[in-house]
Amino acid sequence: MRAIQVSEYGGPEVLVPVELPDPQAGEGEVVVRAEAVDTIYVETQIRRGWGPRFGVIPPYVPGGAAAGTVVSTGPGVSPSWVGRRVVAGAGTRGSYAELVRAAVDRLVPVPDGLDLREAAALAHDGVTGTGIIERAGITPGDRVLILGAAGGMGTLLVQLARSLGAQVVGAARGADKLTLVRQLGADTAVDYTESGWTDSVRHAFGGLPVDVLLDGVGGDLGSEAFHLVADGGRVSAHGAASGDFATIDATDARARGIVLRGITDVQFEASEDDAARRYGPRNGRGRADAPGDRTYVSAVVGGRSSPCDGSPRDFGKGVAHSLTPIVGSLRAPQAGPGACCNGRQRSLSVYCLC
């Protein structure tokens, strides 16, 4: 089978197309023919040198989730899985490949009507986003600020918070991203690259403080946003898209009665209930489409305002649709939508694994 292998830590040039033996399903496992591969920003950080933090040493095949069709099963697994559309979810390894071996307890059946690209996009961010929202305890009328609102997880958090009746301000970068954030249901979109952006947030909330901060960016922006949070508020400082997590004084947070959670508090396991039952097609306003308590959201897959040139203009969720575009991106850098970014881009987009 074809796969992408990281030969050594470094930039996108270390992503090398290789031929590897086809995987064989072991006890309690299946093999999935990948049709859409989830990509998350931390994969680029691991590849650039964070590997030892995660126990990942080159050479290795990156990727932690994929959507596709089961083609074989191992001992102890019902052959009825063969032919089923599934997501091989969190805990799967080596998904930048045509064939992916996965434990059967990591599989989530993909509901009819849900595209495999959207299913793959929800593999990590859908589960984590659901957990973040539930632990934040969002209630109708809560004032919720979301940093990185146009990213893979941010687009989900905007929809989920709005579906719970919150007043949502989404913070992102650039006109196209702000437009997307509004389209997803945010009451207000704020550009956090502009001076005085925190004043814009205060104005949007009528001068009142933030009840819930969902920080997917970190760094100085996350620290600035923390000062907007009300005493007794809730903060999820789970993101480091800026290059590092926000610096927040835990003692100050406790003194103000703020519930503070970090990246270690949002490590959730995928389950059929979370991934398959809660997610599916949604209507244009981010509201539930079906009876019961099922919340429907849309994964924003691979939005882009321009070719992937290393600028921070890309938005949405990165998903590689089969292996061919990945290989193409390696062979044709800076050649348009399949191009790589010379290691400079800050968010992933479809086919661009820089």
Provide the low-confidence segments as ranges: 270-296, 302-313, 322-354
> Order of SSEs, N→C?
EEEHEEEEHEHEHEHEHEHEHEH
Q: Helical content, roughly?
A: 25-40%
Query: Number of DSSP strands?
Result: 14
| Average predicted local confidence, pLDDT | 80
Calculate the terminal CA-CA distance, rounded to whole Å.
Answer: 22 Å
Largest sheet: 6 strands, antiparallel
Q: Specify the overall morphology.
A: elongated
Strand content: 15-25%
Radius of gyration: 20 Å
What would you call the structural class? alpha/beta
> What is the tally of helical segments?
9
Overview of the molecule:
This protein has 9 helices and 14 strands. It is of the alpha/beta class and 354 residues long. Helix 4 links the parallel strand 9 and strand 10.
Name the features:
354 residues, 9 helices, 21% strand, 14 strands, 6-stranded antiparallel β-sheet, 6-stranded parallel β-sheet, alpha/beta, disordered C terminus
Short description:
This protein has helices at 41-54, 116-136, 152-163, 175-183, 197-204, 219-226, 250-255, 272-277, 324-331, and strands spanning 2-6, 15-19, 29-38, 66-73, 85-88, 99-103, 107-109, 143-147, 167-172, 188-191, 210-215, 229-237, 259-262, 319-320. With 354 residues, the chain is an alpha/beta fold. Helix 7 links the parallel strand 12 (229-237) and strand 13 (259-262).
